[in-house]
Every structure is written in structure tokens, then in C-alpha cells.
Amino acid sequence: MNFLLLIAAIVCSLACAGHFTIGDKDFLKPVLESQDVGIIPRKVMHSLFHYMSVWMLISAVLLWGFAFDYAFVFRSTEDVTLLIGICYLAFAIVQIPIAINSQLEKGLLKMFQWIFWIIIGVCCLLSLG
Predict the structure, then answer these.
(1) How confident is the model over 21-45, as pLDDT tens digits?
(2) Domain count, the chain
(3) I want to staple 114 with a disulfide (CB 3.0 to 4.6 A). Which of 66, 72, 92, 93 is the partner?
(4) Is the pTM of this model over 0.90?
């Protein structure tokens, strides 16, 4: 068993749960129901939300499998783990400056998802070495 990948899988699963509950209620639905935003931007945001949903679910399932040495159809779980780690770290690298420059009071805390992304990404990368 790879404990770093287990931690990444647990955090990724928690992020998925938050995405489908809090994210849907507090972020997606207000945008979709807003009359201040046109229909095309609303549908694009709806699509983007679920692109992230798909990515998070797939990566969570893979991380759970890899944590318990199950390779699914992959010859190299290390390559897939590297890709997952890089992607989540990239999400954090994008979100942190947005949060800092958001002009929100305590923007880094209010836009907290980067914490999950860093934990997942770092655990993935550390599991390789």
C-alpha cells in the first residue's frame, strides 16, 4: 500500500464530495439561476463545472486503485500519478494568484480549494520518489 497515494485519494474524495454538495449549491446554481449572466456563459460555466467533476471522479478512483497497487489498464501507474499530480498542482498555481488578486477579504481562505489541490499534487509527486 502506498500511504501517500492513499492520502491523495482521501483528499480527492473529500474534494469531490464538497464539489458536488457545496460547489453545486453555493457556486454553480447561483450562476445558472442568475439573470445577470447570459445563457451562453451560464451553459459554458455548467460545462466547466462538470469537466472538473469528471476529472475529480476519475482521478479519485485511480488514486484509490493505485494506493492499493491496482493498476487498472495502465502499464505505468507512475506516469498517470505524475500527470494527476502535475494537474492538481497546476490548478493550485492558477487559483492562488486569482485568490490573492480577488480583492476579497481573506481571499485565500474563501477560495480554499487550492489547499486540496496542493495536498493531492504533492502527495502524488512524493509517492513517486
Answers:
(1) 999 999 999 999 999 999 999 999 9
(2) 1
(3) 92
(4) yes
Q: How many residues does the chain have?
A: 129
| Cβ proximity of 88 and 22 under 8 Å | no
Query: How far, in Å, CA of 28 to CA of 32, rounded?
Result: 6
Q: Which three cell numbers stand for residue 100?
A: 490573492
Q: What is the C-alpha separation between 1 and 70, in angstroms, rounded?
A: 10
Alpha-carbon distance of 129 to 42, in angstroms, equals 42
The whole domain housing 28 covers 3-127
Structure-block grid coordinates of residue 125: 509527486
- Kindly tell me the burial class for residue 64, based on how many C-beta atoms sit within 10 Å of its own C-beta (0-12, 13-18, 19 or more): middle
SS3 1: coil
User: What are the cell numbers at 115?
Assistant: 489547499
CA distance 115 to 13: 14
Among 111, 122, 116, CA closest to 17: 116
